[in-house]
Backbone:
């Protein structure tokens, strides 16, 4: 039986181990651990293009905010990653702004990791602020990214920067009042309300399922508004670089659910990838019933399911339903040795924190599994790039399953 806290982590994210934690993670570093706040680095992208970035505020005046009565409109933040012509003289963007870093310190999904020992605002990405776009090779296909529930958009930086370096414009979306903290221009910060919403629903299972559905419905509406708003919201320097006739989407956990549900509801999404997100309103991956419409009706366009170790069609009923009901091309892969958070920046960051703070290996494995970053990150990048290359670029490229022993196609 799930404890209340475990149920919160599972239910709100619509996956067994995704996260909204209403506590600051705490642990006592062992002798020899770092004295000051730990500073972290992210792996460099693997593609041929340098990466530029710009952040934008979007306002949906046609929709009242569904999470707070104080605001009669829905307000979002996005980051756009794009192939740059030249990154010289343009600083590397931070992974998290100060208000976002403080929010992530206070509310996060790190198991047995002392988040307050890390300087989250110090991490720099490999995307350069306002770098000029490379127009010679565009326009580029567009791929939207949605993070797991409770996670900031910045926790998908490793994969998003890599896709941009390979010739995609990647739009990273924060779901306000869902993400730990969203910082808007001027420094205002809006924090997650989901722990409080779950406290209101608990222990009524029907109300918990309603909260799960609301969470996904809001995310889908956010994404569809993003697609509406993006053409007119683009700064002049990026206009003409996006091919909005070739749009894909991917996400982690509830973000993967969001990607496929948006694809079901909106034909502008031509291909979608779901990294370890169930597609039903259930508190655990292995629970049956309470299917979403994408699982119950399927898809007629290409999608990829990428699961942690143990997650495949035989163990995740909602994936099985989606697979059976779909008519379009479908691909399914299990990443052996992976945990739920392997598909986020935690894969790169947790081992660094553990080394600096003297955390036990069990803590690393609990968060990101047994697969090492040196293996997991290249395989994840290859899975996404080969999928979108084939489905959006029309390139005939082989996926990583034939050469990477860590990747097991569904059914094998």
Residues:
């Amino acid at each position: 039986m799930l404890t209340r806290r475990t149920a919160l982590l599972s239910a709100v994210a619509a996956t067994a181990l995704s996260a909204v934690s209403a506590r600051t993670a705490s642990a006592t570093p062992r002798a020899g651990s770092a004295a000051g706040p730990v500073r972290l680095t992210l792996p460099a992208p693997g593609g041929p293009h340098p990466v530029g970035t710009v952040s934008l505020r979007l306002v949906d005046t046609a929709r009242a905010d569904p999470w707070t009565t104080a605001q009669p409109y829905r307000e979002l933040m996005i980051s756009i990653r794009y192939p740059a012509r030249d990154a010289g003289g343009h600083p590397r963007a931070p992974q998290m702004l100060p208000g976002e870093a403080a929010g992530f310190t206070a509310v996060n999904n790190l198991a047995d990791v002392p988040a307050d020992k890390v300087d989250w605002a110090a991490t720099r990405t490999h995307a350069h602020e306002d770098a000029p776009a490379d127009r010679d090779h565009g326009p580029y296909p567009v791929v939207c990214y949605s993070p797991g529930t409770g996670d900031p958009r910045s926790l998908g930086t490793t994969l998003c920067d890599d896709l941009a370096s390979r010739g995609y414009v990647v739009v990273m979306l924060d779901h306000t009042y869902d993400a730990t903290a969203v910082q808007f221009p001027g420094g205002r910060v809006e924090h997650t309300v989901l722990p409080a919403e779950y406290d209101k629903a608990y222990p009524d299972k029907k109300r918990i399922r309603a909260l799960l559905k609301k969470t996904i419905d809001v995310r889908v509406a956010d994404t569809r508004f993003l697609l509406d708003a993006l053409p007119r919201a683009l700064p002049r320097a990026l206009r003409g670089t996006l091919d909005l006739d070739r749009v894909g989407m991917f996400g982690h956990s509830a973000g993967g659910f969001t990607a496929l549900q948006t694809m079901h509801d909106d034909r502008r999404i031509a291909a979608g990838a779901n990294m370890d997100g169930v597609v039903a309103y259930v508190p655990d991956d292995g629970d049956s019933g309470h299917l979403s419409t994408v699982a119950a009706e399927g898809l007629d366009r290409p999608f990829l399911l990428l699961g942690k170790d143990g997650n495949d069609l035989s163990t995740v009923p909602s994936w099985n339903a989606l697979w059976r009901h779909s008519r379009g091309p479908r691909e399914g892969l299990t990443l052996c040795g992976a945990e739920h958070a392997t598909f986020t920046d935690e894969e790169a960051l947790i081992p660094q924190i553990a080394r600096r703070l003297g955390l036990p290996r069990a803590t690393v494995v609990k968060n990101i599994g047994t697969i090492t970053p040196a293996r997991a990150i290249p395989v994840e990048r290859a899975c996404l790039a080969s999928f979108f290359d084939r489905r959006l670029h029309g390139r005939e490229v082989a996926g990583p399953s034939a050469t990477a022993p860590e990747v097991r196609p569904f059914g094998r």
Residues 4-15+33-409 form a domain with the Rossmann fold fold (CATH 3.40.50.1820).
